[in-house]
């Protein structure tokens, strides 16, 4: 196994940069680069000088060593915190390479952590989610994923399926015995329990998507209703720090804010009026596109104007829709006296706290899930659906008294799909289970 090194902090100038080294020679590389006669004590920050081959000091750094397996990667690890200039960091890194490490590939530290059993795949993904989190709730969900919010229920489903599979394998090995009614009932109960749990996990997919990608929020309303003013008002207070999502292209101007811990991706739209003008037509088409992928509609109305027909919003019937009666600083038009909606003034900021409250309520149902349970991503969802469909096939097989061999095939497929979520696909598990729970050694 090679020893790898990379700069772990962002490129650019900062107060400090961290260089990470991992692999069997990590401590030796550090010792060589710092020209020390003795190894560093583990888990203690020590002041060191990284030296060029001729002995010149390249930088004064803090070094920390971690001994395998008690490190992030499970290997021997050394971390060098040097001064944060780009040139000095590069020079220190080159010296580390010269002393026996090679450049790490992207994600290679986490990959080694996974391969050494320090992280399952959901935890590795959670690390990226923590880094990319754009809102408090997204961060909390990623942290709970890192601590096993997804891996735990998956593992417990795997354990149950393994037990059922082990029972079945016993019947396969001893075909002269029929599955007893009690065993059959137990197996069905177990599988149904797993089915309920996997279905519950699948149902968190939308919450997970909203957390990771943010709530696609489209602001609609007639010209001059105050859409841009509202956008500016919201941005003025709550502009979010967001990293661009990989793989998303956007042709409409989009801004992000966090409200009540939730990331909203706000899109101001061109309106929905039918028009012969090609430029306006293109704008309307973009609005329709935005509406098709909307998770939330904020409809701004000018409350000083007479109540008018709401625009047709095809495809958005199930999307939460908040009506904002804007310009509450001016006298309201009498026709709107009893109109339900949130009265706001984009100009003065009046009513904006009520808007926050309403948004929090809209997402309250999901935010319970954000707090405690898993917020699965699309990879997990795909695997969960595959597992569910194999599981359901196994259940129908049992109910129809199919050959245990056939039911076992479906169970194995379900196990493989679940195993792919955490990356722990292991047929040895099944063998171990069979041999430990059944004394077949006669
Ligand atoms: P948009 O066309 O819907 O984006 O509307 P704008 O945000 O451009 O606003 C249209 C006009 O209404 C501008 O002159 C704004 O200053 C004014 N306006 C927007 N919000 C308010 C408000 O809450 N109160 C008052 N008095 N004027 C507002």
Describe what you observe in this structure.
By secondary structure, the protein is of the alpha/beta class. The chain folds into 3 domains: 4-115, Gyrase A, domain 2; 124-204 and 376-423, Up-down Bundle (Four Helix Bundle (Hemerythrin (Met), subunit A)); 211-369, P-loop containing nucleotide triphosphate hydrolases (Rossmann fold), CATH 3.40.50.300. 46% of the residues lie in helices and 16% in strands. The protein is built from 15 helices and 12 strands. The protein has helices spanning 26-33, 86-98, 108-115, 121-132, 136-146, 151-173, 181-202, 205-213, 227-238, 278-292, 352-362, 364-372, 378-399, 404-422, 427-437, and strands at 4-7, 16-22, 46-51, 57-66, 77-83, 102-103, 215-221, 254-259, 262-268, 296-302, 321-326, 342-343. The strands form 2 sheets. A 6-stranded mixed beta sheet has the order 3-4-5-2-1-6. A hairpin with a 2-residue loop joins β8 (254-259) and β9. α6 (151-173) runs antiparallel to α14. The site of guanosine-5'-diphosphate has 15 residues, from α9. Residues 221, 223-229, 326-327, 329-330, 345-347 line the site of guanosine-5'-diphosphate (GDP).
């Amino acid at each position: 196994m090679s020893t790898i090194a990379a700069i772990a902090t962002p490129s650019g100038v900062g107060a400090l940069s961290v260089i990470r080294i991992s692999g069997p020679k990590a401590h030796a590389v550090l010792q060589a680069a710092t020209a020390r006669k003795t190894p560093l004590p583990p888990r203690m920050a020590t002041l060191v000088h990284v030296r060029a081959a001729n002995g010149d000091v390249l930088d004064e750094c803090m070094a920390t060593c971690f001994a395998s397996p008690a490190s992030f990667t499970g290997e021997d690890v050394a971390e060098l915190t040097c001064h944060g200039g780009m040139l000095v960091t590069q020079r220190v890194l080159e010296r580390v390479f010269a002393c026996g490490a090679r450049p790490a590939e992207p994600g290679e530290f986490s990959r080694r952590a996974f391969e050494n059993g320090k992280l399952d795949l959901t935890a590795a993904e959670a690390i990226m989610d923590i880094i990319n989190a754009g809102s408090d709730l997204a961060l909390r969900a990623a942290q709970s994923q890192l601590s096993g919010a997804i891996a735990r229920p998956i593992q417990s489903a795997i354990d149950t399926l393994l037990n059922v599979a082990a029972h079945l394998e016993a019947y396969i090995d001893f075909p002269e015995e029929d599955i007893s009614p009690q065993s059959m009932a137990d197996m069905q109960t177990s599988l149904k329990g797993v089915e309920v749990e996997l279905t519950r996990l699948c149902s968190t997919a939308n919450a997970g998507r909203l957390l990771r990608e943010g709530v696609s929020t489209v602001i609609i309303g007639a010209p001059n209703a105050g859409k841009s003013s509202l956008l500016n008002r919201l941005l003025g207070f709550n502009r979010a720090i967001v990293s661009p999502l990989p793989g998303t292209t956007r042709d409409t101007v989009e801004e992000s804010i966090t409200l009540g811990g939730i990331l909203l991706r706000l899109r101001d739209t061109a309106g929905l009026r039918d028009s012969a003008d090609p430029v306006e037509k293109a704008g309307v088409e973009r609005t329709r596109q935005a509406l098709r992928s909307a998770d939330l509609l904020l409809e701004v109305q000018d409350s000083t104007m007479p109540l008018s027909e709401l625009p047709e919003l095809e495809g958005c019937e199930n999307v939460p829709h908040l009506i904002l009666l804007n310009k509450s600083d001016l006298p309201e038009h009498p026709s709107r006296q009893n109109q339900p909606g949130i009265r706001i003034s984009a100009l003065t900021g009046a009513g904006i706290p009520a808007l926050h409250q309403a948004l929090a309520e809209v997402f309250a149902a999901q935010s319970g899930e954000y707090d405690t349970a898993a917020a699965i991503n699309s990879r997990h969802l795909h695997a969960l659906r595959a597992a569910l469909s194999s599981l359901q096939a196994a259940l129908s097989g049992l109910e129809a008294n199919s050959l245990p061999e056939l039911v076992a095939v479906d169970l194995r497929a379900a196990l493989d799909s679940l195993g792919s979520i955490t990356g722990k696909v292991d047929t040895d598990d099944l063998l171990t289970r069979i041999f430990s729970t059944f004394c077949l050694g006669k």
